[in-house]
Design brief:
This protein has an 8-stranded parallel sheet, with helices on one face. Strands 1-2 form a two-stranded antiparallel ribbon. By secondary structure, the chain is α/β, with parallel strands linked by helices. The protein has a domain at 5-223 and 287-295: Alpha-Beta Barrel (TIM Barrel), CATH 3.20.20. It contains 12 helices and 10 strands. The longest helix is centred in the last third of the chain and has 17 residues, at 253-269.
Length: 326
């Protein structure tokens, strides 16, 4: 099984049709246990690369920088030029330092230097802002980010914010157009069959501005994989068992109705629910490449096999309409 490649949004770069996210790398979970340690991280990256994967996503906040370090160490035995790397800046990194967070120029410059050092590379393919900062003027933000592109440390700019905001992207890109700065060309919103809020103005804005959409959380934290069952306590080792806010957000009756639809199509196609949910995104004409995360090789292998699955037009339409919420 070899992943196909697709254009990275409006850029000339090509990426795997499924990206690999590293947010679990070095992440502390219950009782201080690390979710994905060094050995497992390398195994996952090896398996992804062996499947033809080249699009690796990380952030300066993942594992407090550990995720970037692990990716950088892994790349020492690979050809960096064969991979497309994306990372993100926004969240606090220096305790109570008022300049150690957000999108101010001081924080952006410091964090980009640290990201490149941890990844052991001279440039990033994609730099995302990981949130919006009302304290930093938009002109300062776009001017600073544009310099990163001009001096060769970054190839493309993107947004990866918890609350996608069409008007903020439009404001930033219109200013960039007017002043000759580099615009945002990519975005990484949360988008899946139970979280479809961006389907109104945000996806329309991305289409109008030619912005590539790279959905994170394509399986709704495992809900769409069938990991959770209606009316049953979540498995002991699951995210919902240790994160009450996640359970409150996702383990809801109307979302289990969506899972029922996915499982119905999975049975018809002899695929798994996770593969059907991912294939729906792969068939979505406004989506560039979903980004998956995994704790085990089996999970990753299951997700990547979605690339070989096809849905009929009728199945795609059925899933789209049956899971739509007013």
């Amino acid at each position: 099984m070899e992943l196909d490649v697709v254009p990275l949004g409006p850029t000339g770069t090509k990426v795997s049709e499924i990206g690999f996210g590293t947010w679990r790398f070095g992440r502390e979970i219950d009782d201080g246990e690390i979710e994905v340690k060094r050995g497992r991280a390398f195994e996952l990256l090896d398996a992804y690369a062996d499947s033809g994967g080249n699009f690796i996503d990380t952030a300066d906040s993942y594992g407090g920088g550990t995720a970037e370090e692990l990716v950088g160490d892994w790349l020492q035995n690979r050809d960096r030029e064969e991979y497309v790397l994306g990372s993100k800046i926004y969240w606090p990194t220096r305790g109570d330092d008022p300049n150690g967070r957000g999108l101010n120029r001081k924080h952006l410059r410091r964090q980009l230097a640290l990201i490149l050092d941890r990844l052991r590379t001279t440039y990033l393919d994609v730099l995302y802002i990981h949130g919006w900062d009302d304290d930093t003027p938009v002109d300062e933000l776009m001017r600073t980010l544009s310099v990163f592109v001009d001096d060769g440390r970054v190839n493309y700019l993107g947004t990866a914010t918890r609350e996608p905001s069409a008007w903020r992207v439009v404001r930033a890109n219109e200013l960039a157009r007017r002043e000759g700065y580099e615009p945002f060309k990519l975005t990484q919103p949360r988008f899946n069959l139970v979280t479809r809020d961006i389907e109104c103005d945000y996806l329309e804005m991305c289409l109008d501005y030619g912005i590539g959409v790279l959905p994170c959380s394509p399986l709704a934290g495992g809900l769409l994989s069938g990991k959770y069952q209606r009316g049953e306590a979540p498995p002991d080792d699951s995210r919902a068992s240790i994160d009450e806010s996640f359970a409150d957000s996702y383990l809801r009756e109307e979302y289990f109705d969506v899972v029922d639809v996915v499982e119905e199509v999975a049975e018809d196609t002899e695929a798994t629910p996770a593969q059907v949910a991912l294939t729906w995104l792969l068939h979505h004409e406004e989506i560039t490449a979903p980004i998956v995360g995994a704790r085990t090789i089996d999970q990753l292998d299951e997700d990547l096999r979605a690339s070989g699955l096809s849905l009929t037009d009728e199945q795609f339409a059925h899933i789209t309409e049956a899971t739509r919420r007013e």
